[in-house]
Design goal:
This protein has one domain (4-100). The chain contains two helices and five strands. A hairpin with a 2-residue loop joins strand 1 and strand 2. The protein is of the alpha+beta class. 13% of the residues are buried. Strands 1-2-3-4-5 form a five-stranded antiparallel sheet, covered by helices on one side.
């Protein structure tokens, strides 16, 4: 029998398989599961267990600013450039969101 905690998690957790590599994307704010206003600006943590990742990446997600409105030279997703696969995966849940890696070099 499945534990109630596994059927209804207390914190948001997503298992990611992006270009054949696996990782865990999770939040530490339980309001993300039940309160839509908490989805304005929030943080998610990502861990892949890959050798190039020395610590959990803390991503800042802003669902009300759009990545295409930023200055093109600073935006990795501008026309003619490729967007990071993890950011594209996050945008399947929060379309148009801006993802900031908070000074960490994107590795996934």
């Amino acid at each position: 029998q499945v534990s109630p905690g596994l059927r209804t998690p207390r914190l948001p957790v997503w298992l990611c398989s992006v270009p054949g590599r696996h990782g865990v994307l999770f939040g530490t704010d339980s309001r993300l599961l039940s309160h839509w206003k908490a989805e304005r600006v929030f943080h998610l943590h990502f861990y892949s267990g890959q050798q190039e990742q020395t610590h959990t990446a803390r991503l800042r997600i802003d669902t009300h600013s759009h990545y295409w409105e930023d200055v093109p030279s600073k935006d990795p997703c501008s026309p003619g450039k490729r967007c990071l696969a993890l950011e594209m995966a996050i945008r399947t849940k929060w379309a148009g969101a801006t993802v900031s890696w908070n000074g960490t070099d994107p590795f996934f």
